[in-house]
Design brief:
It holds the Pfam family SASA. GO terms for molecular function: hydrolase activity. Keywords: Hydrolase. The protein has about 250 residues and is of the alpha/beta class. It has helices at about 10-15, 65-70, 115-130, 150-155, 155-170, 195-205, 230-250; strands at about 1-10, 15, 25-35, 50, 60-65, 80-85, 135-140, 180, 210-215. Strand 8, helix 6 (about 195-205) and strand 9 form a beta-alpha-beta unit. Helix 5 packs across helix 6. The longest helix is centred in the last third of the chain and has 21 residues, at about 230-250. The chain is globular. A 7-stranded mixed β-sheet has the order 4-3-6-1-7-8-9, with helices on both faces.
Length: about 250
């Protein structure tokens, strides 16, 4: 079964207050998700779900980029997703990829734990599907947490390139198309290195012919880190359009 992957931190989980999104219902889309899903949405983890709708994010009151991605899917694109995402996680430590590990992580907070969980989510989804999963593309929305980490921001481009290399190796797709979402967090005392992270995102994509940078700074925000419902949907639609361009360029 061909699938798209969604990964990252809170904006990949879906932390936008659901409001006015009643029309964004996709009954034919399959979804497997794991990570930071709470309250009643804990039941939506580690099981194949048929149908994507508003309220499948962090709590039943939150949604995310998955709605916009589904709305923007072109004919012939996979109609199945595997999502692993966890809020307030950085790339420099939490998502540290396997080739950089000094020792395998054993618990949340250990370097590389989120990467390990991402791998395990894919493997569990594959086992439950009863057939091999073929990754057709990755939507990655992360970086806000590195915006208040001097080391993480300075090394963001390098760390992101290594992460994508390791992910592609694990999935057996050296040319896997990847869309990187721009963090919209503004420079502040809480995110002093936001511009460095954005520069790192752009630099990584510029050097990777199979990656696309997806801008989001103009989208409406609900707070300093997260998008409004309409902002998240618009970002998802941009993700889908960028993925379509990447896949069309390879034909």
């Amino acid at each position: 079964m061909k699938v798209f992957l969604i990964a990252g931190q809170s904006n990949a989980v879906g932390t936008s207050p659901t409001d006015g999104l009643e029309g964004y219902v996709f009954p034919d889309v399959l979804l497997w998700q794991a990570g930071e899903f709470t309250e009643e949405n804990e039941k939506l983890q580690n099981v194949w779900l048929r149908g994507v709708r508003p309220g499948m994010g962090y709590t039943p009151r939150h949604s995310g980029i998955e709605l916009g991605i589904c709305a923007g899917l072109k004919k012939g694109m996979p109609r199945a997703f595997v999502r692993y995402a966890y809020g307030t996680t950085d790339l420099v430590r939490d998502w540290r990829s396997e080739s950089l590990w000094r020792a395998p992580p054993e618990k949340r907070g250990d370097a590389g734990w989120e990467y390990l969980c991402w791998k395990n989510a894919f493997l569990r989804a594959q086992e439950a599907a009863g057939e091999p999963l073929e990754a057709e593309g990755l939507f990655f929305m992360q970086g806000e947490s590195d915006a208040y980490n001097r080391e993480g921001a300075a090394r963001y481009a390098e760390n992101l390139a290594t992460l994508l290399s390791d992910m592609r190796a694990f999935l057996g797709r050296a040319d896997l198309p990847v869309c990187i979402g721009e963090i919209a967090t503004k420079v502040s005392a809480y995110a002093p290195y936001a511009e460095q992270v954005r520069a790192g995102q752009r630099a990584c994509c510029a050097r990777d012919k199979n990656a696309a940078w997806v801008p989001s700074a103009d989208l409406p925000m609900s707070d300093g880190w997260h998008y409004t419902a309409r902002g998240a949907v618009a970002l998802g639609e941009r993700f889908a359009a960028a993925m379509a361009r990447l896949t069309e360029e390879r034909r």
